[in-house]
């Protein structure tokens, strides 16, 4: 089973590229972030035409997450990260699919830091850890994936100096990420690329793509039962170079059936 994550940076704006990627790579599950669409405008019909069913948690102009499944519709799903009833940002959706639990997230960016946006990021990560501990306790094969907006290691960025003040690389952000891992999760891309140098994001500015000035913020975290089934993981880098592409590239993991 191939499970993928793609920060699409506007589902309507990138729809041709998204359909192209789905048809060419055909993941069983495709998790999208930053769909930037209210629920009523989400283009579910376009995905149905190529055999994908969709569930989504939208928000006008900002945020938004969705899960596309190939061939089979999801019976039940949950929207929103537990722990703060007042949080109205659409950043989390989860479901079961073919015996694997999928949790798709778009973690807060946190910039500028310090400040309320960074505080929200760290509080959100604490809520995420609580939910991920619950998922671990279930002992189901589980994949938590998406745009984490955290650069875990210096080897995950083209220039440590240039990103040093960014919320994505602050010690508190990294510590919160490592607390997630230390509870028992496997970072699929990092495990298979221990020397780093694998990017998932290239900014639109300053020729970042052309210079390969990128960093890794899109992650695939596997529970022990899922990690035991991992056979491959990677980044579909070439899709970042296509016309009107997202500033992220898709990332994916393949699990034994």
UniProtKB/TrEMBL annotation:
The record marks 248 as: Interaction with DNA substrate. Its cofactor is Mg(2+); Mn(2+). It comes from the Bacteria. Keywords: Hydrolase, Magnesium, Manganese, Metal-binding. Pfam families: Exo_endo_phos. GO terms for molecular function: double-stranded DNA 3'-5' DNA exonuclease activity; metal ion binding. It is an enzyme of class 3 (hydrolase). This is Exodeoxyribonuclease III.
């Amino acid at each position: 089973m191939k499970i993928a994550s793609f920060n699409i940076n506007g589902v309507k704006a990138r729809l041709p590229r998204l359909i192209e990627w789905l048809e060419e790579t055909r993941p069983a599950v495709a998790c999208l972030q930053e769909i930037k669409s209210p629920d009523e405008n989400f283009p579910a019909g376009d995905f149905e035409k190529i055999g994908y069913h969709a569930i989504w948690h939208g928000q006008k102009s900002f945020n938004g997450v969705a899960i596309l499944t190939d061939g089979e519709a999801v019976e039940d799903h949950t929207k929103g990260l537990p722990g703060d009833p007042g949080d109205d940002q659409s950043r989390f959706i989860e479901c079961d699919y073919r015996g694997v639990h999928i949790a798709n997230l778009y973690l807060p960016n946190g910039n500028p830091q310090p400040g309320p946006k960074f505080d929200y990021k760290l509080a959100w990560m604490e809520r995420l850890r609580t939910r991920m501990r619950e998922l671990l306790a279930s002992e189901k094969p589980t994949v938590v994936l998406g745009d984490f907006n955290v650069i875990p290691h210096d080897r995950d960025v083209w220039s440590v100096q240039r990103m040093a003040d960014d919320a994505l690389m602050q010690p508190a952000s990294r510590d919160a990420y490592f607390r997630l891992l230390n509870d028992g999760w496997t970072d699929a891309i990092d495990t298979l690329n221990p020397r780093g140098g694998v990017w998932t994001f290239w900014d639109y500015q300053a020729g970042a793509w052309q210079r390969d000035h990128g960093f890794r913020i899109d992650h695939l975290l596997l529970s022990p039962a899922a990690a035991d089934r991992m056979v491959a993981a990677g980044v579909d880098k070439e899709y970042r170079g296509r016309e009107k592409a997202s500033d992220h590239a898709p990332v994916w993991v393949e699990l034994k059936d």
